[in-house]
């Protein structure tokens, strides 16, 4: 289960909306407590692809964030990205590029009047929705 405080939810949604018309992306960090994955930091990054259909994060930005996460004693919990005009479910490309089954893959859909945030664990080409609290 991914545990996401309201302020971090708001931060993810704001970053997603701020990236329109393109996909927005970023990393999530925090602590694990048994089955709970407690988000303690949200790191919105630039979508270097500047595309409404896919995203990439600059390696130097990722390294900077990972360094900051380690200094705080946290771990990388996952990443997030938005779907400006499609549902909050992994696309075939999202599944193909999900290399680490230990991570949460959060997707924010902005296709409707209200944002929809869902999280997934992806293993061997199969995406399973995980609870978000």
What's the arrangement of secondary structure elements?
Layout: E1 2-3, H1 6-18, E2 25-33, E3 36-45, H2 59-71, E4 75-83, H3 92-96, E5 104-109, E6 116-123, E7 126-130
Parallel strand pairs: 1-3, 4-5
Antiparallel strand pairs: 2-3, 2-4, 5-6, 6-7
Could you please describe the fold and organization of this structure?
This protein has a 7-stranded mixed beta sheet with strand order 1-3-2-4-5-6-7. The protein has 133 residues and is α/β, with parallel strands linked by helices. The model has no long low-confidence stretch (mean pLDDT 96). Helix 3 (92-96) links the parallel strand 4 and strand 5. It has helices at 6-18, 59-71, 92-96; strands at 2-3, 25-33, 36-45, 75-83, 104-109, 116-123, 126-130. It has a single domain (2-130), classed as Cytidine Deaminase, domain 2 (3-Layer(aba) Sandwich).
Number of domains: 1
- CATH superfamily annotation: Cytidine Deaminase, domain 2
Q: Characterize the overall form.
A: globular
| Helix-and-strand structural type | alpha/beta
Which architecture per CATH?
A: 3-Layer(aba) Sandwich
Unreliable parts: none
Q: End-to-end distance, in Å?
A: 7 Å
- Strand/helix succession: EHEEHEHEEE
């Amino acid at each position: 289960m991914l545990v996401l405080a309201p302020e971090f939810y708001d931060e993810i949604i704001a970053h997603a909306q701020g990236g329109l018309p393109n996909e927005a992306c970023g990393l999530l960090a925090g602590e694990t407590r048994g089955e709970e994955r407690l988000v303690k930091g949200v790191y919105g990054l630039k979508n270097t692809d500047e595309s409404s259909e896919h995203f990439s994060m600059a390696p130097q930005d990722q390294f900077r964030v990972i360094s900051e996460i380690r200094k705080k004693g946290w771990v990388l919990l996952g990443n997030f990205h938005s779907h400006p005009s499609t549902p909050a479910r992994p696309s075939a490309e999202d599944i193909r590029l999900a290399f680490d089954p230990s991570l949460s893959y959060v997707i924010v859909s902005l296709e409707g009047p209200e944002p929809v945030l869902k999280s997934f664990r992806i293993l061997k080409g199969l995406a399973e929705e995980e609870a978000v609290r």
